[in-house]
Write a structure and sequence with these properties.
- This protein is α+β, with helices and mostly antiparallel strands.
- Helices cover about 20% and strands about 40% of the residues.
- It contains five helices and 17 strands.
- The protein has helices at about 15-30, 60-70, 150-165, 185-190, 200; strands at about 1-5, 35-45, 50, 55, 75-85, 90-95, 100-105, 120-130, 130-140, 170-175, 195, 205, 210, 225, 230, 235-245, 260-265.
Length: about 260
Amino acid sequence: MNLLTLNCHSWQEENQMEKIQHLAQTIKEKAYDVIALQEVSQSIDAPLVRENIKENNYGLVLLQELEKLGVQDYQLVWDFAHMGYDTYEEGLAILTRLPLVKSHSFFVSKGTDTDYWKTRKIVGVTVEYAGRELSFYTCHLGWWTDEEEPARYQIEQLLHEAKGCGTPFFLMGDFNNSAHIKGEGYELLTVEHGLHDTYLLAEEQDSGITVRGKIAGWDDNKQDLRIDLILASDQVDVASSQVIFNGENKEVVSDHFGVEVRVRL
């Protein structure tokens, strides 16, 4: 099974359409089974296409670019989390080629006001793979030191929902908690709650770095960070974990690099 997670920073990138096209070409090449995307935005005033998805929804535009390449087997699941940059409805998305059993969407922040940028929601899917059901959640969490919307609370809410689903699960996304910092969100997930970091399980791995220097939300950062992760509820056989869209393994498409993981299930 091939997995990809990417914080898209959508509609905030220069040469945005070229980057979407590059992402679509890579998806065609790699044939990911599940793709978790964060910061998947649409204009507040764009026309509705279906349900709550509007005409310029980044995920929908990506699907359209895939269709131009002859790739028509992905389903899009998206939901709105909060307003971003005043004019965008920012959400999260999952694209999957696997049979969809059900979708999930729930708040993990203390507040649920979608006009407030710190409001956090999780989007997930349960799919069928090799005769079993598996769940995948695309995650964009807050910061450990934020007293108003602490990451600890959000992680606890996320795990309560994921564990309650009753299936093995993967958490994929931008956790805004560095794997290099002891005693914070990463250790809460992996040490206290026993989730398995697919990067550490991988037979082949690179540096794992997904953020270099200052980006949105990390305005004072001067370090290399590993904050984009794929975590598993069960110990799994991981063939490889590679950073992608970092200028070395494919062109840069966002202020975050992506992570692709190949799991033997």
